[in-house]
Amino acid sequence: MKLTVNGTIHEVSDPPDTPLLWVLRDRLNLTGTKFGCGMALCGACTVHLDGSPVRSCVTPVVEAEGRSILTIEGLGATVLHAVQTAWIEEGVPQCGYCQSGQILSAVALLNAVPTPTDADIDAAMSANLCRCGTYPKIRAAIHASARRLGAARVE
Amino acid sequence: MWSSLVLAALAQEAPPLVDPAAGTAAFLDVVQVLQSPRCMNCHPVGDAPLQGDLSRPHAMSITRHSPEVGLPCSTCHRVVGLPLPGVPPANPSWHLPPANQVFQGRTPAALCAQLKDPAQTGGRDLPALLAHVRDDALVRWGWSPGGRTVPPGSHEAFVAAFATWIDAGAPCPPP
């Protein structure tokens, strides 16, 4: 089956019920997407499918066939996304394991709500866990991303 | 004009096809299904869907507003899902009904009145409700929920009880 990952078409032959996560990591060597729980409980494996966030650990690869998959590698392939820049500037990562999923969920939030409130951020990010407890920095980075993206729209 | 009035009067006076007592009994069977976890968990009081046979609020503070902030149900509830332990239930139309379609905590009489009020059924009249409980993908999922507890009785028995209640004139149990 053909997968379009970060704009590149790949041919894979895994069984259709293989979790998309393992195809990304083990077949395509895109290891930025992390395994956390395998049950859609932690958000570490979040990628975008046609622009919408999905937990790749519970998404059969067949559901991604013919659709556009975006991973953390694709998000910053040419120029870092505003969320990635804010993540660095705010010093969000501690151990960093959850950050790929956090960033892709934050991008989905900002696509839906360009200037989110604290409540919006809490609601959107509530399913992405961070064992290091970097939540205040995550929130600050999302606000900073919103300002950066808003300024870019004005320009 | 007179003929239409006569027809309307005849229609109003037409006896129900089923004894009302049998209709009320059938409705109480319907209530048992509506308030079983597989049905009630998606018709909760408030904004949070419920989970499991204990009908606890959805983990991770998920509410009916989560999709508005870029966290749609389909983030975790996929189309076909995976046959693995603990994986969220999958269905292509996974969603919450509107907030006023509540099954949780309702008495049978209140549920009966609610189902007969199109303002609380998404505009469905009784025949449309019968079609909903018979054909809707998420309703039917309730009887094949991937190893989870199913509602009491079969889906066919549920639809039959619903039809019996309607054929009896949709009588409501006493408050």
Structure overview:
The complex is a heterodimer of chains A (155) and B (175). Chain A is an alpha+beta fold and 155 residues long. Chain A folds into 2 domains: 2-75, Roll (Ubiquitin-like (UB roll)); 82-154, DNA polymerase, domain 1. Chain A has helices at 20-27, 72-75, 82-89, 99-112, 118-125, 135-154; strands at residues 2-5, 8-11, 46-49, 52-55, 68-70. Chain A has a 5-stranded mixed β-sheet. The relative contact order of chain A is 0.15. With 175 residues, chain B is mainly α. Chain B has one domain. In chain B, 38% of the residues lie in helices and 2% in strands. Chain B has a two-stranded antiparallel ribbon. In chain B, α2 packs antiparallel against α7 (155-167) and α5 (126-135) packs antiparallel against α7. Chains A and B meet through β4, α4 and α5 of A and loops of B.
The beta-strand count of chain B equals 2
Outline of chain A, from the CA principal axes?
A: globular
Q: Beta fraction of the residues of chain B?
A: under 5%
CATH superfamily of the largest domain in chain A: Beta-grasp domain
Strand content of chain A: 5-15%
| Chain pair forming the biggest interface | A-B, 30 and 26 residues
Helix percent band of chain B: 25-40%
Number of domains of chain A: 2
CATH class of the largest domain in chain A reads Alpha Beta
The CA-CA distance between the termini of chain B, in Å, is 39 Å
CATH fold node name of the largest domain in chain A: Ubiquitin-like (UB roll)
Number of strands of chain A: 5
In DSSP terms (H or I, runs of 4 or more residues), the helix count of chain B works out at: 7
Q: How far is it from the N-terminal to the C-terminal residue of chain A, by CA?
A: 42 Å
